[in-house]
Design a protein that fits this description.
The complex is a heterotrimer of chains A (about 170), B (about 425) and C (about 325). With about 170 residues, chain A is α/β, with parallel strands linked by helices. Helix content of chain A is about 30%, strand content about 25%. Chain A is built from 4 helices and 7 strands, in the order αβαβαβαββββ. Chain A is globular, with a radius of gyration of 15 Å. Chain A starts with 7 loop residues before the first helix and ends with a strand. With about 425 residues, chain B is of the alpha/beta class. Chain B has 12 helices and 19 strands. In chain B, strands 1, 2, 3, 4, 5, 17, 18 and 19 form an 8-stranded mixed beta sheet that branches. In chain B, strands 9-10-11-14-15-16 form a 6-stranded parallel beta sheet, with helices on both faces. A 3-stranded parallel beta sheet of chain B has the order 6-7-8, with helices on both faces. Chain C has about 325 residues and is α/β, with parallel strands linked by helices. Chain C has 2 domains: about 160 residues, Rossmann fold; about 150 residues, Aspartate/ornithine carbamoyltransferase (Rossmann fold). In chain C, helix 7 links the parallel strand 5 and strand 6. In chain C, helix 3 crosses helix 12. The chains are: A alpha/beta (about 170), B alpha/beta (about 425), C alpha/beta (about 325). Chains in contact: A-C, B-C.
């Protein structure tokens, strides 16, 4: 995928399609959606409306579940997680903006499981890039991207949503 | 054997006689023999060049604890004698709160003999006012006097009640002993560890109110008139107590006072951050108190600056502030702190030196602290401009408990002569 | 002229991050707000089935109590456990130091067990500062009450409670009633309320129980409870220790309650929406009437609940990372 095709609208369309297919394939009944703070939550807000989900959107802040606390300490700004539904036995659509190492999703799964034991979790991301470090993969994606090790992709928002690539 | 010494070209300041000028000083047989004009046949065994330096009587410290006997884990007389000499001090009074307490001639003699062995200082033990400093029964003051004690005192120990105080003053007066009182009402002081005021309130430290001092001073002053005792108040800390003493002096009551050098510089705010090195007793008080103490020194209400030297082992200061031992090691900072007063224009140089020499001599009625011919050759020579840093290389006391550690101070003793012998010099 | 660092420098690292939590005095308003914001986030943890987060997994917190206090120790223990830290309770009130071991030796010995945080309660003012100054650089110290000096986590949970119920501090008049002299809670609360911009802080009590120059802390004093409660938004009652009766501070519990006990009638002088707080444990019928302590204005139990989230916030903010000075997105 080229930089020119980093159009958020197109990517959301594709992710929506993929999610619909996955819901149909798995015959997921009455799924709920959880967005990961902050970029994932922005994407989830849009998808939640498009998919016409009944229950309110859940918001997950994984700061307390990050695996790098012992390296960098407490994150300076932390907002709370809000899961306005019971997790136990539910089908969950977990949404994030960028899938990179897989660590965020691991932290998010840990947090979700501390609220209860869901029936299934489907992971949807806007962009999957190379650099996976743990055996977790997204189920549904808006697009894939190959970047150099020093490159990062970042979603800015909430209005308008835009993707940008920079080097660290 | 003492030698014949010429101290050449220094600025000689002798507050007792008002002398202040460039002079040569001749010492022989342990005494001052002449000024400027050598006695017939005088040939110096050696000369001390004192150009640019100040030559004055050796200092008399009215309160320094050398911790012997009984507290040798803190310091010893022999060990501290090096710091004493490096501080320019030739005579010091040792409070009676040793272990055993100085309430028998044996203990007084022991201390004096240990000091004599060093050959560099004269220690005047202050006898205990009450037996064992228990505050109840009188000590054998007559015997203490025969053993050479010029004064008796209570150190930091309270007396049981005012009746004991009255009788102790009366009894001491019978033997013409000076009574040294560290005025602090034990009940008002309670378990306090800091000046009662804004800082102790903020830090949540139990306070020692100024009234702990003024109430004690008032009691003693009232009883003095009835007993005829001579009293010296030690380490006055509050402005109000100073005013009471000034008034008593004006009324002709034979009362004198000294102040610890640190009280003239540090204040309650110096304990911020729970600095245990500034935990002293009496506590560091407010700025206004400090100003009155300085004024009183200028006016002569306070006759002497003492070091109130209290060396401690390191562990004594390693605890929560209230649980630490009060007191600071302060021999070698005595002169720099006194000179700083002159530098800040609080006192004339001569007045600052008087508070270290003729002032304390007069309190004790001693024929010391002056440079007149025939007086013992206790001499301090110092460089008033030399800056030095308090630290490992310069500090000679076993007690490192000074808030001035690593601080640079001005004024350094270069030579100290005790009875005509070089006690310190480089 | 002396060498000691002010508390500020001891508590914060060069980037302004919390290193120890010893006193409220000298902290910036933003930091206090951040502590409360973080506590707000931690409140959701109690909604989880598994009421803990893995944040401090592998870290060891030592509750070092030189003075017994079941309540405070319990909330710290629970807070640490909800952060997945390992907790060691050491009660020294009766053991080591009374056997002659120095405070420093006690610290050194426990430190040698590779611990990461000390939560310290001590009867002497300044004990937490002393320990913070002498611990190894990777260890953080939380003051859980030192003498009369400070009890900053209690003050923060009270501020958190006030903010939740009142929305902010700007227009608030807060009365602190009782034994201010011996109260570390009162001192920390006064600092916190002033930093957070409360309109007025009143301290109310007999002269024997107000410290010297208390106005210098930024409070208005009052010796009459009826007068002092006029138009107050928040009433903080302090516990009256039994030993004050023997120390000639007050004549009797009876007379104290008659003059300074909070009753429903007295409370009616405060604003209609005024809340009543108490750091506990409550002496019913001494400083507060049961009717008020259990009444609808009382938020005493909410304070206890908030205590856990606040302590989770402070512990996680003060816990030192293994490698300092790094930041940034290592995650995605």
């Amino acid at each position: 995928m080229s930089e020119a095709s980093l159009d958020v609208g197109t990517l959301i369309d594709r992710l929506e399609t993929a999610l619909r297919e996955e819901i149909a394939r798995r015959e997921l009944l009455d799924p709920v959606m959880i967005g990961i703070h902050t970029g994932g939550a922005w994407i989830a807000e849009r998808l939640h409306a498009r998919l016409g989900l009944k229950e309110p959107l859940g918001l997950l802040n994984i700061s307390f579940y990050r695996d790098d606390f012992s390296e960098i300490g407490m994150h300076p700004q932390v907002s709370r997680s809000v899961l306005p539904f019971r997790v136990e036995g539910r089908n969950i659509l977990l949404i994030d903006d960028v899938f990179y190492t897989g660590r965020t999703v691991r932290a998010a799964l840990n947090e979700i499981f501390d609220y209860g034991r869901p029936a299934q979790v489907v992971l949807g991301v806007l962009i999957e890039r190379n650099g996976r470090q743990i055996p977790i993969r997204p189920d549904c994606i808006g697009g894939t991207l190959v970047l150099k090790a020093e490159q990062r992709i970042k979603l800015t928002g909430p209005e308008p949503l835009a993707l940008s690539i920079h080097s660290v | 054997m003492s030698e014949r010494i010429l101290v050449k070209g220094g600025r000689v300041i002798d507050p007792a006689s008002g002398l202040d000028g460039l002079h040569d000083l001749y010492l022989a047989e342990g005494r001052v023999v002449a000024l400027d004009v050598p006695p017939d046949g005088f040939t110096a065994d050696f000369e001390v060049g004192a150009r640019g330096k100040i030559v004055c009587p050796g200092f008399i410290d009215l309160c320094a604890r050398l911790r012997e006997p009984g507290h040798e884990h803190k310091a010893t007389i022999a060990g501290e004698s090096r710091a004493v000499a490096a501080a320019g001090i030739t005579t010091l009074c040792c409070p009676p709160d040793t272990d055993p307490v100085i309430d028998t001639p044996a203990v007084a003699n022991l201390i004096r003999e240990k000091a004599q062995l060093t050959g560099t200082l004269r220690v005047l033990p202050i006898g205990a006012l009450t037996r064992g400093l228990q505050g109840r029964d009188l000590s054998e003051m007559s015997a203490l006097r025969s053993a050479g004690c010029l004064a008796v005192g209570n150190a930091h120990a309270p007396l049981a009640n005012t009746l004991v105080l009255r009788r102790a003053l009366e009894y001491a007066a019978s033997y013409d002993l000076l009574v040294v009182i560290r005025p602090e009402d034990p009940h008002l002081a309670d378990r306090g560890c800091a000046h009662e005021g804004p800082v102790s309130t903020r830090m949540g430290l139990p306070g020692i109110p100024e009234t702990a001092e003024t109430v004690a001073v008032a009691q003693v002053l009232a009883l003095m008139e009835h007993t005829g005792a001579r009293v010296h108040f030690a380490q006055i800390s509050s402005g109000r107590a100073v005013r009471m003493i000034a008034k008593a002096q004006a009324d002709g009551i034979p009362v004198s006072a000294d102040v610890a050098a640190h009280q003239l510089h540090l204040t309650e705010t110096d304990i911020e951050g729970f600095d245990a090195l500034c935990h002293v007793r009496p506590p560091l008080r407010g700025r206004a108190d400090r100003e009155i103490l300085r004024e009183a020194l200028r006016d002569g209400v306070i006759a002497a600056i003492c070091s109130d030297h209290q060396p401690h082992e390191p562990g004594a200061k390693l605890d929560a502030f209230p649980a630490t031992a009060p007191g600071m090691a302060s021999l070698q900072t005595l002169l720099p702190l006194a000179l700083q007063l002159a530098d800040e224009g609080v006192l004339t140089l001569s007045r600052a030196l008087a508070a270290l020499t003729s002032g304390p001599a007069a309190v004790l009625g001693l024929e010391l602290g002056a440079l007149r011919p025939g007086a013992p050759a206790d001499i301090c020579i110092f460089d008033p401009e030399e800056c030095w840093t308090v630290g490992e290389d310069t500090w000679l006391s076993d007690g490192r408990n000074t808030p001035f550690w690593k601080k640079t101070v001005t004024g350094r003793v270069t030579h100290t002569f005790f009875s005509g012998r070089l006690a310190f010099g480089h | 002229m002396s060498a000691a660092l002010p508390a500020r420098d001891l508590q914060l690292d060069t980037t302004g991050r919390l290193k120890h939590f010893l006193t409220i005095e000298g902290l910036r308003r933003e930091l206090l707000e951040r502590i409360m914001d973080t506590a707000e986030s931690f409140s959701s943890v109690t909604e989880q089935t598994v009421k803990k987060v893995p944040l401090l997994r592998g870290k060891t917190v030592v509750n070092l109590f030189f003075e017994t206090s079941t309540r405070t120790r319990t909330t710290f223990e629970l807070a640490a456990k909800r952060l997945s830290a390992d907790v060691l309770n050491v009660n020294i009130a009766t053991s080591a130091t009374s056997k002659g071991e120095s405070l420093l030796d006690t610290i050194r010995n426990i430190e040698a067990m590779h611990v990461d945080m000390f939560v310290v309660r001590h009867a002497e003012s300044g004990a937490a500062h002393f320990i913070a100054r002498h611990v190894a650089p990777h260890v953080s110290v939380i003051n859980a009450g030192d003498g009369r000096h400070a009890h900053p986590t209690q003050a923060m949970l009270d501020m958190f409670t006030i903010r939740k119920l009142k929305g902010g501090f700007e227009n608030l008049t807060v009365a602190i009633v009782g034994d201010i002299l011996h109260s570390r809670v009162a001192r920390s609360e006064i600092h916190a309320l002033n930093i957070l911009g409360a309109k007025e802080v009143r301290v109310i009590g007999p002269r024997t129980l107000l410290p010297a120059a208390v106005e210098s802390l930024g409070v208005v004093t009052c010796h009459d409870l009826d007068e002092g409660l006029e138009a107050v938004d928040v009433v903080i009652m302090l516990r009256l220790q039994k030993e004050r009766m023997s120390g000639a501070f007050i004549p009797s519990e009876h007379e104290y309650f008659a003059r300074f006990g909070l009753t429903g009638k007295r409370l009616s002088r405060a604003r209609p929406d005024a809340i009543v707080m108490h750091p506990g444990p409550v002496n019913r019928g001494v400083e507060i009437d049961s009717e008020v302590a259990d009444g609808h204005r009382s938020v005493i139990l909410q304070q206890v609940t908030h205590g856990i989230a606040i302590r989770m916030a402070i512990m996680s903010m003060a816990m030192r990372p293994d490698r300092e000075g790094q930041s940034g997105d290592r995650l995605a």
